[in-house]
Amino acid sequence: MNDQPSDNARQPARFSSSRRDMLASAAAMALAVSAAGAAGAEPAAVSRKTANGRLPKIALEEHVMFPDFVSYLGETRQNISPRLFERVVPILSDFGDRRLDTMDANGVDFAVLSIAGPGVQVERDTATATRLARSANDRLAEQIRKRPHRYGGFAHLALQDPRGAADELERCVKELGFQGALINGETNGSFLDERRYDVFWERVAALKTVVYIHPGNPPVMAAAYADHPELWGPTWSWAAETCTHALRLIFSGTFDRYPDARIILGHMGETLPIQPWRLDSRYAISNQRYKILRKPSDYVRENVFITTSGVCSDAALRCALDEMGPAQVMFSIDYPFEDSKIAADWIENAKLSDQERVAVASGNASTLLRLKAAKA
């Protein structure tokens, strides 16, 4: 997360309406072409460019804001620079030219939008959380309907009521056309591996959709971060908390009970890609409350997908592809908290084969989120 909104967001390139229409048309074509690239199709996908010559991209961790959620966003003041917080709300609130110009300039054909955290994950009143989540989803769907070839959505869910959240997820996927859900960390201190959430994971699996687990603050700061505010938030604690959330799902047997459930982690997997060998090695000698049916690394490579949001490192990307598998890694930006141009330039020039580049930039996301079918 940068100390300021992205340069592209501050100084958007200007595109004419005719050029915008051409890019929108190109976006629809990109979804089909990039899916073929992920499946191993040869060079047609590799050579395709957007109207301004950029590699086509799909981005999955791209944030928005509605007025009645700004007070929840204020919870992150403890984590980020005041300079960033004050500037970012107008950018998050824009669904028009400012956002689209930044996407166009950087070859982002399609962005899956989600509420910037923590949202209702920190709301104490279940009825309020449920009402606001549904309202936010309806408003996001309204924006998507205006530009269905440019925007998709992840549902915002009130996990205070697990069955209600499952029902809302189903509504968002089946009726609103969303690509899954994004959960901002713990819900009032509760992790998603608790058995009361089985009704939710059962629905996720039945829908064959995905849950993006995004960072959030736990209710209480751990002693490890005392007197070190630089560690509390995007520099470190969010990665530790989010990776732990994913590991709890693995080690509690959630993916044994619901093998079709899949999650996404941002920020190059929140350190998870460096862990599989040690997870397997140390699990064998650990004190175990739950018994899982397979090696921990099997779940990492089959039930967990990751995005590159906020990590523009060739070495980290190579590690993720080699450890997670070539179909598990997807491009994202973390707009507007990260710089779109830095992310786009990096993925276009990263040390990858052409087939890997197309798969990461758009193909893997198109396949996982079934965007080809959704936009056909």
Topology of this protein?
Blueprint lengths: L6 H4 L6 H22 L5 H4 L9 E8 L5 H4 L8 H11 L4 H9 L2 E8 L10 H21 L4 E5 L6 H13 L5 E5 L13 H10 L2 E5 L22 H15 L2 H4 L4 E4 L10 H8 L12 H8 E4 L6 H11 L4 E2 L9 H10 L4 H15 L2 H5 L1
Parallel strand pairs: 1-2, 2-3, 3-4, 4-5, 5-6, 6-7, 7-8
Helix pairs in contact: 2-16, 8-9
Give an overview in words:
The chain has a single domain, classed as Metal-dependent hydrolases (TIM Barrel, Alpha-Beta Barrel), CATH 3.20.20.140. The chain is 46% helix and 11% strand. It has an 8-stranded parallel sheet. It has 376 residues and is an alpha/beta fold.
- What is the structural class? alpha/beta
Taking pLDDT < 50 over at least 5 consecutive residues as the criterion, the unreliable ranges are: 7-19, 21-47
CATH structural class? Alpha Beta
| Rg, nearest Å | 19 Å
Q: Biggest sheet: strands side by side, in what order?
A: 1-2-3-4-5-6-7-8
CATH superfamily: Metal-dependent hydrolases
Strand content: 5-15%
CATH architecture: Alpha-Beta Barrel
CATH-assigned fold name: TIM Barrel
Summarize the structure in short.
The protein is α/β, with parallel strands linked by helices and 376 residues long. It has helices spanning 7-10, 17-38, 44-47, 70-73, 82-92, 97-105, 126-146, 162-174, 198-207, 237-251, 254-257, 276-283, 296-303, 314-324, 340-349, 354-368, 371-375, and strands at 57-64, 108-115, 151-155, 180-184, 210-214, 262-265, 304-307, 329-330.
